[in-house]
Design the sequence.
């Protein structure tokens, strides 16, 4: 079942002589349960594409249809509500609130809804291996632990799609493997994931790899796992 459809999507920055077409007339579909890795050289537009798909930036033209809703037609208030209910986002540099504990950071998205997600929180905190760190502040954690908190925050509301922008880019190889293993675990349990990464070894673990260059898709390959 296709839960995301992108049609003729474009985004440019700058004006006239300095104009850059970061995303150039891009179209593709995403099926429920896919794990897509978007790769490409620096400046290729892959992070811009991810931000558009997650509703963090506005496209100049085209359609982004998530579960039958074209998010390009939503106003800011509608987009905020839609993102809260349907989208999880993992940032490279965690973006945790330094004055909140691990537990408070993970549960933060639930404060905007009437759904407490207590049962989901207990499952997450256990899978993330952070039971002993619930009352710690982010500065008391390692980079890998902070990213695990960020994953918990992104998953707490059971998002339709989980987006990840270089989720291992700020981590050592051991921590990066743990983060990738977590993402693979949730994907195997049905979570749709779209990840931007510069690490081709990590990208190979995804079920589909989209190669981006100069704002366009130059290759789209689906892996067949045994």
Sequence:
């Amino acid at each position: 079942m296709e839960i995301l459809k992108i049609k003729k999507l474009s985004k440019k920055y700058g004006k006239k002589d300095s104009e850059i077409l970061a995303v150039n007339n891009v179209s593709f579909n995403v099926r429920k349960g896919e794990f897509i890795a978007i790769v490409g050289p620096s400046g290729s537009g892959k992070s811009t594409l991810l931000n558009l798909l997650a509703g963090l930036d506005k496209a100049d033209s085209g359609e982004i249809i998530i579960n039958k809703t074209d998010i390009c037609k939503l106003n800011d208030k509608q987009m905020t509500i839609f993102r809260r209910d349907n989208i999880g986002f993992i940032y490279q540099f965690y973006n945790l609130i330094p004055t909140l504990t691990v537990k408070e950071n993970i549960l933060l998205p639930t404060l905007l809804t009437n759904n407490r997600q207590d049962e989901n929180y207990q499952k997450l905190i256990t899978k993330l291996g952070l039971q002993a760190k619930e009352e710690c502040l982010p500065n008391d954690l390692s980079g890998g632990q902070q990213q695990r908190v960020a994953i918990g925050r992104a998953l707490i509301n059971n998002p339709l799609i989980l987006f990840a922008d270089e989720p291992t880019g700020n981590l050592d190889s051991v921590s990066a493997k743990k983060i990738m293993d977590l993402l693979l675990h949730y994907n195997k349990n049905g979570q749709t994931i779209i990840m931007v990464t510069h690490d081709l070894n990590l990208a190979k673990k995804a079920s589909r790899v989209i190669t981006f260059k100069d704002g366009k898709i130059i290759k789209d390959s689906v892996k067949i796992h045994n």
